[in-house]
User: What shape does this take?
Amino acid sequence: MFLIPQQIPWTQQPQVFAHVADADLDCLFYGSYVTSKARTSLPDVLVGSPILNSVGLIGCGVKFSGGLQRVRLSGCDVIPSSQGFTIEILCAVSSVPSLASFMSTGHYASGGNARGLIAFGGAGKNIYFWGSSADLDSGVAWREDGAIQHVFCVSQGGSGTPMLFYRDGRLIASGTTPAVSNTPSSTFVMGDSGQGWTQSPVGIIFKSSFYRRALSAIEVRQLSDNPWQIFTLQTYDVFIPSVAGGGPTNITGTLSSTLDSISTAIQGSLGHSSTLSISLDTIAVTGSGVLNHIGTSTSTLDDVVVTFSGAVDTAGSVSGTLACTLDNIVFSSAGNLNHSTTISITLDDVFVSLAGTVAGTPENIDGTLSIVLDGIGFTSSGNSGTYTLTEADIDAIVAAIQANPKTLTVPKFLGLK
Assistant: This one.
């Protein structure tokens, strides 16, 4: 038995401390935990008693009931004004009071030095980027139906660059990032932002995060499909039982292989009975030793080379029927080729070269030799024997000579004058 480690992405919310795979993820709240580049821990400050680890539709989260409620993570770095960023909120809320904050930097803000997503604009319920006097209204309201909604606010590169709003993987609004300034080294908060508004949404926030870069539309879509793939892969050990070698000497049954670009090398003896069927492209079969086969061997191949080093034996000679239907083939026999019964070859552009003796019949070829070919020439040299003329042959010769008496001199006993 041995182990094979397998790594798979998270597809559900981790219910334990988990490491984040994205180095640009500055802060993440999930379940009842918060994590940053420096650490993963429980929230270090609770205001107004939000309920941690509250069970909802897709896991656990922080449950807010409106008013002055928030959780906080301290020790966040400065965010420059030219820094692209992404704010992500995964929640299910039933009510969104005006100025309710979902996630933001947690210092007392002024002059564009904040980054956050709140509810404001319109009827006070729109998805709204808050930068403290550097704001942008999406014009689209937060849903208050208690269903899951996954919202992203993406700034392509800080002040003056495009700002995009997504919900559930779809672009819902766009504009220009307002004139934000550098943030101080401070905190991130989820819930009330600490600006004196004393408002938070009513419902559960399952995940909120801040990235120090602009996520692409593809990344937004991927996170909308699976919000938990940001965590490092889970590792599992798969147990594979080992099977001792051995088995019978021969393979009995059916061996079927359908492969591309395979090389099969056999050292020793391969014994096979029943059916061996191989359908392959570009194959080399090498037998070093003895290849014994009983039964039927069927090969359907293009551009195949079969090489035998040694002897191919079937009782000394090939007897029975050999049928070959091929294009562009050369047969070469060095030694003696013995064959009895029928050899049938139907080919185009064939060259047959025999160095030695073609035998297997008496001195002459007795029987029928039938060859049907295109583009072939036969040459015979060194043949002697007796040619017998019939009476009809002689009459034909006499008639030809009488028609052309000056072309041939013949003895008088043929009756010619």
